[in-house]
Amino acid sequence: MGNSRIANVVFPKPASRRILATGGAGFLGSHLCERLIRQGHEVVCLDNFSTGRVENVEHLIGAPGFQLLRHDVVAHCGELAVDEIYNLACPASPPDYQADPIHTMKTSVLGALNLLDLARERGIRIFQASTSEIYGDPHVHPQPESYWGNVNPIGPRACYDEGKRCAETLFFDYARRYGFSIKVCRIFNTYGPRMRPDDGRVVSNFIVQALQGKNITIYGSGTQTRSFCYVDDLIEGFVRLMRSPDDVTGPINLGNPGEFTIRELAELVIDITGSKSRIVHCPLPVDDPQQRRPDIRQAAETLAWKPTISLAEGLPKTIAYFDRMLGAETTETRESAA
């Protein structure tokens, strides 16, 4: 596939809309809200703040057209007058979604039902942020959208994996029955500013440990692989998918196909931070995937999308963010103790 083919795909600039972004105060949601406001849209940012943070969107509060609502999508969303919906509501890191697995499943399933009903009532387009976790511990590598996955339905990760799989089912059943426009993407590992330092994801774990001079903990041998997409690239994929023609429903993989072992990531973080941290190994969690890399041919062909920011470019930006955050937290702790 040549770059000329990608360059020939043209997406018109959308008219200003009133857009609901659920999970809008989270890591990805806040970047999406920022992008939509910058494009001139009105944004209703809805979050229950179980993992989202007001700090992620406080720079948008007071901006024309931005509204922040505290609400859980598990409950009925009411009569919101919106023109589009982006559904990003659900904890995405294992420690977060395993903390209350029943509520995680409810968020994916009941949340999808409530938002699909809203989309059906208003006859509007709705976007579902699904996940590469629906592929489980894959037997096919890299993972194309046609692969049905290898998921343990009763394991500790199933509340998230199966919840997202069920949400995808609901989206396609609603579209077939009621005929409105759906967009489903499958997100692969994403990193960048506004990740929480305690979210338990491998990138944030390694950066925080390196900046604090602690041992960097690798679970398992470190030979398992992941592909890391910088947040700006992912949000561009979101917007392109939402603007695509109605017959482009997905699911479409969005992620960076550059593949790294977990040990390579740890070594790169140590190198960039200049840390003296040592690498130590801990037991591998149950059902942790051994390989993860997206096949993004469909995104390239249909959305003219491919990631542009390499791990070597994105990590320093992310490290700088965590360095500022940890420095500010240290200062606040010292001042409160004084």
Question: What does this protein structure show overall?
Answer:
The chain has 338 residues and is α/β, with parallel strands linked by helices. The chain has a domain at 9-188 and 230-256 and 288-308: NAD(P)-binding Rossmann-like Domain (Rossmann fold, 3-Layer(aba) Sandwich), CATH 3.40.50. Helices cover 40% and strands 16% of the residues. The protein contains ten helices and 13 strands. The protein has helices spanning 3-7, 27-38, 94-99, 101-122, 158-178, 202-211, 231-243, 262-273, 297-303, 311-337, and strands spanning 18-22, 42-47, 66-70, 84-87, 125-131, 182-187, 190-191, 216-219, 225-227, 229-230, 252-254, 259-261, 279-282. Strands 3-2-1-4-5-6-11 form a seven-stranded parallel sheet, sandwiched between helices. It has a two-stranded parallel ribbon with strand order 7-10. Strands 8-13 form a two-stranded parallel sheet. Strand 5, helix 5 (158-178) and strand 6 form a beta-alpha-beta unit. The radius of gyration is 20 Å and the shape is globular. 45% of the residues are buried. Residues 1-12 and 333-338 have low confidence and may be disordered.
